[in-house]
Amino acid sequence: MVEAVLIDLFNLPANLQNNIQELLHHTLETIEKCSSIPAPFVYVMCCQRHGSDRSSEEESLLPVLRDFWSLTERLEVVPSPTTAAALYTIKQRLDEKDLSIIKIILPSLRKDFMKVYIDQLFTIVYQFEFEDLHLTSNCENLQIAEPESEGHMLPAHEVALIQREIQMYMESLPSLKGELTFLKTSLIPDDIFLHGFTTRTGGISYIPTLSSCNLLSSSKRRDPQAVVKENLRRLANAAGFNPATFHRVKCDHANAVCIMGKKEPDCYDGIVTNQKGVTISAPGADCIPVLFADPIRKACGAAHSGWKGTLLGISMATVNAMVSEYGCNVKDILVVLGPSVGPCCFRLPHESAKEFHRIDPKCVRQFDSAEPYVDIRRATRILLESGGILPENIQDDSVTDQNQNVTFCTACHPDKFYSHVRDGTNFGIQIGFISIKD
């Protein structure tokens, strides 16, 4: 059953402009007549004319709205200067109420345009269906219809204009939860490499567990590509890298490594490069974002090391790729473990914990329990040292000077970091990033 109805009165054709109140009246009449209990939430999207204020747009529709007392508490007029602004405002209303099943009633000529906006501003968490804006008394219109066949594709220049409108709107939004900040380590030489580990502040993501600098859009969550792209743009601006040459690993919780400039695997948890100005990154939200730097051969890498990837040796696989591809000496490679879940908060079933116990008994606490605490950072260090990385070239939470620490427990610091362990499935993502300076 439809949870929300969006009535699009933006850019009405000229022949409908003079009948806007009549159109709205008949549309609301049908919604009221055909709705189940409770009625869906209704959002009327209209253009806020230049020089006018929000209230004047709403007042022009008030005579119509007063006739629909049963919808009053679930009815809102959303006047905005652009379609992007109106849709994003409505998206916030939907997310506040955890609504996902939406009918859009709009002029048929607007349908293909609206699909582009939806593709940019929503994820597949939401279900949309469309209905032409016309007089109707068909009560089945508020049922979920079968997916319709694809409409006509908009010309590329029209799509580009919509994308630019969305981008400009995203850029205008205020940062949330304070300034954008990222952590750096003195182990990686600043004159050769640009690097950092992001925190959760300074972006525009507004959903509580994703707020505010979420850096990954997922089909399972409500943060769309447009928001993540803007968060990345702000990070790039603050850190000084080019977002157009930014690459992140395609996580599979395994040990494949991508060599920049060669054929890209379908999935990989490590990535290496010796190209200047190319920024590579690995995500984390409890899993470890690991950065690698060789200041002698001027090569770098990034890896996503969850508990499965740690056991499969993703960190040493990344080191080995740097050695084989760029002639790095393993003793020159510097490795930094970023914010990740600590042994204070991370538990695994006993059978999985046994694998870490084999690496080193000190990697597991309360080993005899059903779900022991596991230290994936310590296991990563041991595997790296076993592979030839010098102990002094590894930075993790064992640093003696805590002012130099970048390996914070993500679960213990909700103000600074995202955490799957703490927040559940709707978690945000921070990253570790690195590039070779031009």
Describe this structure in words.
The chain has helices at 14-17, 20-34, 54-65, 83-97, 111-121, 156-172, 225-239, 307-312, 314-326, 350-359, 376-386, 420-423; strands spanning 4-8, 41-47, 75-80, 101-106, 127-132, 182-183, 193-198, 246-248, 257-259, 270-273, 279-284, 288-294, 299-305, 334-337, 364-365, 373-374, 394-395, 430-436. It is an alpha/beta fold and 438 residues long. The chain folds into two domains: 4-135 and 152-171, Rossmann fold; 176-436, CNF1/YfiH-like putative cysteine hydrolases (4-Layer Sandwich). The strands form four sheets. It has a six-stranded mixed β-sheet with strand order 9-10-13-12-14-17. It has a five-stranded parallel β-sheet with strand order 3-2-1-4-5, sandwiched between helices. Strand 12 (288-294) and strand 13 (299-305) form a beta hairpin. The protein is elongated.
Write the layout of secondary structure elements.
Layout (H helix, E strand, L loop, with lengths): L3 E5 L5 H4 L2 H15 L6 E7 L6 H12 L9 E6 L2 H15 L3 E6 L4 H11 L5 E6 L23 H17 L9 E2 L9 E6 L26 H15 L6 E3 L8 E3 L10 E4 L5 E6 L3 E7 L4 E7 L1 H6 L1 H13 L7 E4 L12 H10 L4 E2 L7 E2 L1 H11 L7 E2 L24 H4 L6 E7 L2
Parallel strand pairs: 1-2, 1-4, 2-3, 4-5, 8-11, 9-10, 14-17
Antiparallel strand pairs: 6-7, 7-18, 10-13, 11-18, 12-13, 12-14, 15-16
Helix pairs in contact: 2-3, 5-6
